[in-house]
Amino acid sequence: MNKTNSIIEKVLKTPVTDHVVVCYGKNETHNIRFSNNSVNRENLFKLEEEVKVEVGYDGRTGSYRTNDLSEDGVKHAIKKAYEAAKLLPKDPEYMPPVTKAEAAKIKSFEPVIGKLSDAGKYAILRDAFGELKKAGLNSAGSLSTNPYTTAVYNNKGVRVSHSNCFSALTLTAMTENSSFRDSYISKDFSGYDGEAFISGIIGNARLSKNPASLEAGKYTVVLGPSAVEELLMMFLWYNMDAKAIDEGRSAFSKRPGERIANEAIHIYSKPDHKKAGLWPFAPDDAMPYIGFDMIKNGRLARPWHSRFYAQKKGVKATGRAPANVIFKGTDKSIGKLISNVENGLYVNSFWYIRLVDLMDGIFTGMTRDGVFRIKDGKITGSVNNFRFNQSVFDMLKNTAAIGKEKAMFYTSIPPITVKNFNFVSKTEF
Amino acid sequence: MDNLREIVKYLAKKKVRFADAREHLFREREINTEDARVEQITEQNISGVGIKVLYENGWGYASTSGTEPASLRKAADRALALARNADRSATGTVELAEEPRHTAKFATKIKEDPFEVDISDAVGVLLRAGETILKGKDVIKANSRLVFRNMKKKYANTEGSVIETDVFTVLPEIEATARANGEVKSRHYWPAPMNAGYEYFRGLDFMTNAERIAAESREHCFARPCKTGPTALILDPEHLSLTMHESVGHPTELDRVLGYEESCAGRSFATMDKLNNFKYGSGLVNFIADNTLEGGLATCGYDDEGVECQKWHMIKDGILTGYGVNRELAYKMKMKRANGTTRATKYCDVPITRIPNLYLAPGKKSLSVEQLIADTEDGIYIEGMGSFSIDQMRLNMQFGGDAFWEIKKGKRTGMLKNVVYNAISYEFWRSCDAIADERYFKRSGFITCGKGDPMQLAQMTHGASPARFRNIMVRRAK
């Protein structure tokens, strides 16, 4: 980084135009993938260190990405971006580089870098495989540690840099006819309790065995945090762009000011959230991420604004997507939510969610890795998987209870209870 | 190439059972336009060397962006250390199916290198297409995407293979979005992505298709909703490309079948006990895997474990007859040889089993699309790709489309909207009762097929002639 920093600083002393931005990224991934209770061929270490250069010229912008971080390599990237910019027509949405006044004010960060040794990582897995084998279960998943650094430099004097680390153990335990999946997500495994994590998965995998046949239909469901995250993030991604809303290309376009959710639902972004991913600035321009409400009091509070569109509308930019998404939880456990359901289902996670109808916010997808029957407030066994075709507006309106948040990579999301969740077909493996 | 040969020799001295080194340059230029402006133009040039090691029964993979001996040595040592760690947790043995030693070169046949053509030429074409789209009544948005890709690879392994490949890819698409009658609907023109040079892009007719999709996006807004219930579907080649990708391509990747992908992309119902006896489709259904197909997106001469690209039947006369297989699993399957479909996206990615170029063979009897429609009393004709979803065993699938027309008494009548169909994959292929002949065969394909952990994106061609499927459950997507 020090050498690359010096090169970038040197190159920026003689900028080719008044608009040169250099975004630096370093990602160090150690990923151990496993299947059938054994490490498989995706047992890898990779160090990706790259710069993305953006050059503006008379209202046009070109960019170039390279992992040649020599002085010649960075200069070449600038030259190519400049040449591309010169060939383009003027962009009516051109934005100059971020100024020092606009850029994120980085005070101090304490990067938590994965300190777990390679041997320690494989030991975690060997212990897990041992317990799973004893329980008569098969497994698949991955253990990864990902320290990273991101930095933005420009010729307006902006210099911001941030380092952090994400680590995760994701494990699917399988019986001969069912599966259950869970993830342990943290900075560096420092709080990992292998015994609790693995025993939880083993218990749920055993519970998932021999799923009963159940017909599709409308059910009261308790959706686990992963299931809520998967569906909610897809919905937000398609619909929250302010420009798309104004141009009539979002499901929110035809619902101005309407009540779209249960009033208890509060979805917001908080860049300095203690558990979800910490992102102080946008990695492509150094604009600070801001905290803001997205859905509050049952209504759209504010959508996402790019830098260009925020300037046009006279509001603060949120970024094309926010730093993170927080769905405000309560202190109720998943068990508490389940105990309040007389007749319904618990869905651990979804899979392959896709848009079906944009303007009505309808998505399809499958349940996966854990669907359980709830009767009289208790889980009575597992059932087959289902396909859903579900309006997210209906899901948010029909949310009857909200549980305790679980922090994931870029989100903190609670389990929720939803009435009349629409399953349209079933699958039996 | 000498640096690669040297590093695998170094590893051979460390008593590894197998090692290979792959120098991999990934170049990509992507242009995105929105209405009459260039939304973004990005170019990337990412290169490095990936080294794979098999030590006893453990695999390790490490990569470096440097190509000089010290960087390669460091990566090789890291890969070896990872492999030793993996071996300590190994529960089975790893053997590799034999592959002849190759000294070979392969290159896509191109006339014009897309990276040497002035970028303003392509930008001009896309912006003119956008202007044409925006002239359409009630059209509110025009988008386009154009990708040029080049992958240059050098490969050496401890068995003595030395291979160089140079592959060029072109992917163009344009999209019109209309708002009318309380609806917002899009329509696309997706020429087949091809391994080709710039000349392929030059030969495409964007303006005529821009006018057509602008008009059809508006027509779609005024379409009638479909009825829920079973009906006949006639599916065009572009649409079928996505259907076959999800319900035949992925289920026949043997690594999925054997549980290696369980944690991410999922498994497959097409288990090995079904090989050569499972009725996957009707007797008309023949799926050919062909990584030697000229211009095919997966056509690269040799894959990323040094195996020659091949052609085989995945499904023959409706029966499951093959899989996509790497060397390790080919040995487990008692196959003489892997079939050359193991690929990585970039230098830092581990090569994994990917869907090959895969197509539905055209019908053997003379049959036009017009005859196919005329022979259908009630049904829906679907063009292009829309919503798509399938479960992790590749059984329960639901597809939409880009445009839908009602078929009544043998005629294509008005447009329909909000159509999705739902089926169990093998039941769907078993319901195929007619396939148009080879005159109507068209290619399509993908460059963003996601698989692996960490996720990688791969490219492959698909193709078909229009085909009919009986008694498929259609729902109104509302």
Structural class of chain A: alpha+beta
Please tell me the overall pLDDT of chain B: 96
Mean pLDDT of chain A: 94
State the helicity of chain A in percent bands.
10-25%
Instruction: Please report the distance between the alpha carbons of the first and last residues of chain B.
Output: 58 Å
**Helical region count of chain A?**
9
Largest sheet of chain A: 6 strands, antiparallel
Distance between the termini of chain A: 50 Å
pLDDT under 50 segments of chain A (min length 5)? Answer: none
How many H/I helices of chain B?
10
Main beta sheet of chain B: 10 strands, mixed
Mass-distribution shape of chain A: globular
Tally of extended strands of chain A?
19
Write down the Rg of chain B.
Answer: 24 Å
Can you characterise this structure?
The complex is a heterodimer of chains A (429) and B (478). By secondary structure, chain A is an alpha+beta fold. Chain A folds into 2 domains: 194 residues, 2-Layer Sandwich (PmbA/TldD fold); 217 residues, no CATH class. Chain A is 23% helix and 38% strand. In chain A, the strands form 3 sheets. In chain A, strands 3-2-1-4-5-6 form a 6-stranded antiparallel beta sheet. In chain A, strands 10-9-8-11-18-17 form a 6-stranded mixed beta sheet, with helices on one face. In chain A, β17 and β18 form a beta hairpin. Chain A is globular, with a radius of gyration of 24 Å. The mean pLDDT of chain A is 94. Chain B contains 10 helices and 25 strands. Chain B has 2 domains: 211 residues, PmbA/TldD superfamily (PmbA/TldD fold), CATH 3.30.2290; 252 residues, no CATH class. Chain B is globular and about 70 Å long. In chain B, the strands form 4 sheets. In chain B, strands 8, 9, 16, 17, 18, 19, 20, 21, 22 and 25 form a 10-stranded mixed beta sheet that branches. Chain B has 478 residues and is of the alpha+beta class. Chain B starts with a helix and ends with a strand. Classes of the chains: A alpha+beta (429), B alpha+beta (478). At the A-B interface, β1, β2, β3, α2 and α3 of A face β2, β3, α2, α3 and β17 of B. β3 of chain A pairs parallel with β2 of chain B.
